[in-house]
Amino acid sequence: MFTPSPTQMPDWSSRSLDEGQLSVDVFRDKNDLVIRSTVAGVAPEDLDISIHGDLLTVRGKRDHGREVKEDDWYYRECYWGAFSRSVVLPYEVNADRAEASLKNGLLEIRVPIRKSGERNIRVKVEE
Prior knowledge:
Elements (H helix, E strand, L loop, with lengths): L19 E2 L3 E5 L2 E7 L8 E6 L2 E8 L18 E8 L10 E5 L2 E7 L15
Parallel strand pairs: 1-6
Antiparallel strand pairs: 2-3, 3-8, 4-5, 5-6, 7-8
């Protein structure tokens, strides 16, 4: 069995604390594209979800809730702070009909897939 030396182990304490990356699952469910992610400990008001063209972005933050002195830590595996994830969507979607729900720490975003040939047409007002 391979055991990495301390110099080969990732140094999680020195990684950039600016923003973590959210893990996601993306799949098709009939006429919807579904994006799921675990966001335990994140309040709904701390989530920002946007769709621009074929790019879906989820941003948020997870607060630790209390300060722990450096010497009191034994393990530090959970990520606390700001996080985000952008996903290129594999289909054209109707972003204006997207819905998001949060239940038991599971975020689910459902976006209707645009049917072939379907287009939104904006009407210009002429004076």
